[in-house]
Amino acid sequence: MPSDATSWLGQDASAMAQAVRTGQLSASALTEACLQHIDQSNPQLNAFTAVLAERARQRARQLDADPLLRQGPLAGVPFAVKNLFDIAGLPTLAGSRIERDSPPASADALLVRRLEAAGAVLVGALNMDEYAYGFTTENSHEGPCRNPHDTARIAGGSSGGSGAAVAGGQVPLSLGSDTNGSIRVPASLCGVFGLKPTFGRLPRTGSYPFVSSLDHLGPFARSVRDLALAYDLMQGPEDPRLAHDPGCGQRPVQACSPLLTQGMAGLRVGVLGGWFEEQAGAPAQRAVQQVAQALGATTRHELPLVEAGRAAAFVITNAEAASGHLNDLRRRADDFEPLSRDRFLAGALIPAAWVARAQRVRLRYAQAVASVFQQVDLLLAPATPCAATPIGAETLQIGERRLPLRPSMGLLTQPLSCIGLPVCSVPVWGCDPDLPQLPIGVQLIAAPWREDLTLRAAAALEALGLARAPIAPDFLPR
Amino acid sequence: MSPDIPPEALARYVEAAADALGLSLTPEQRPGVLAFFGMAARFAAVLEASELPPHDESALRFEPVAVPTAPPAGPSGAEHAL
To answer: Which of A58, A161, A478, B22 has its CA 20 to 30 A from that of A125?
Structure first.
């Protein structure tokens, strides 16, 4: 076991928490080591937009002084959140310049409070695409977030900072959001585990909305046990007497951590073909094949109405996202991110008839896909068409086709989040012979409310050594 | 309006709708806005082509709001009033 606090940063959150609970390590020492590593690495990664050193130190001192507090499941674990989560005392930027003028949040987001109640220590806020409308975190206001495995490449988005902070060893745990792929894309490109739960599973109270019809929140981690633990700790209904998320299902906790060792026994696993093969390059397809072989996948399935589902997600996203910013689009359009401003303006003009039809098609698509899950428990698909691309690249190649990069990174994720399916993205390595050091994520997809199956499969792949999330070699804490 | 919009009609709609909403499109913004609106129109055509019986419901569902009860007096454990 590590002998000093910096060395503990190389362990996962569960190991760190155990060390704090047993007195091997103080929360203060762990926090200080984390802050130092962030200070050293962030100039290269640009994952953090705010570091809350004094808040973190104060929280760590509280933990160290209180033996009861120090027994939490995430005791002393440093974590960070995408800067669309409310943090008390800070304006909630949501990646924008405009929100810098907003009053500070009066309270932490609910999921931040739940993790802190478990003993975790919030150390900062993370870079993202402006208002979550992107898949690359090339943020013109804050600068691009860089991929720890190759800092000339994107970290993905819109939760790029969340993926990079974990892959860069800055924190073992982070939170992001996913509307059309914004947890799964950075998880894929940064080589970490990411969970997009079922739509409505985790309450979004205290987070800046992008598309209320489609927004999910979820964790990133370097181990499946950490991912499951964070997810379990964030679950549960809200107090109905208080301000709460109207889109949340308010379901009781369905803990997944105790189920991780159940393995794959009795599970029917299939590979998604059709769209999910056509929109994936050869390396991404190889990643799926490796996972399919490891999990004993025996069937191939094509989702009905995929293109219609994706079209629905696009129209709903474009219209709803813009509607929330109409006044700012009128008064200060040039303060928006240049890469997404025109998309917002166009979205504001979308006819209501298109949006209404999109919501009807969405439900029909969801019903059609539910039938597929009568035949299979888990489906596999790539998370991104390719590995991380260079920062500033405008196009990507899929087979013979050259596509605009920024919208195309979400081709494989958007049809699944559209209907709220739970998905765990697991990192697979060495599938691209031209880029052997880079990961590509594979989506483990289950029926609604069956996050347990995605996490069981992820744990099985991790145990086999096929899915792993090492800290990027250039950013190992020293 | 049919989603199969000729480019000239699309441009007229964009200008008129932007004007009606109080959005002044600059020459710098206009090409991007037209391109993205055209993209949305192509997706709308896909939606239009999807068969939908008249009774198919929206994925959005309104839930009536219950009569509120008094909130708790102070912070309640880890979750407190925003």
So the answer is: A478
Q: What is the mean pLDDT of residues A455-476?
A: 98
Closest to A381 measured CA to CA, from A274, A256, A224: A274
A82 a catalytic residue? yes
Helices and strands, counts by H and E, chain A:
17, 17
Average pLDDT over residues A423-449: 97
Helix (H) or strand (E) holding A258: none
What is each CA distance from A41 to A22, A46, A51, A171, A186, in whole angstroms? Answer: 29, 8, 12, 11, 18
For residue B21, give the amino acid letter. Answer: L
Number of H helices, E strands in chain B: 2, 0
Nearest CA in chain B to A307: B46
Considering only CB atoms, which chain A residues are within 8 Å of B59? 213, 359-360, 362-363, 366
Radius of gyration of chain A (CA): 21
Residue B68: pLDDT over 90 = no
What the block records as the tokens of A213 is: 């019809």
Show which of residues 313-332 on chain A sit within 8 Å of chain B, judged by CB atoms.
Answer: 314-315, 318, 326, 329-330
- The answer, yes or no, to whether residue A293 has pLDDT greater than 60, is yes
pLDDT at residue A61 tops 70: yes
Give ipTM to 2 decimals. Answer: 0.92
- pTM of this structure: 0.96
Spatial separation of the C-alpha atoms in residues A410 and A430, rounded to whole Å: 21
The yes-or-no verdict on residue B78 having pLDDT over 60 is: no
Residue B70 CB-half CA count within 13 A:
3
Q: Where are the domains of chain B?
A: 1-51
Nearest to A176 by CA among A52, A78, A84, A244: A84
Q: What is the DSSP-derived secondary structure letter of residue A99?
A: G
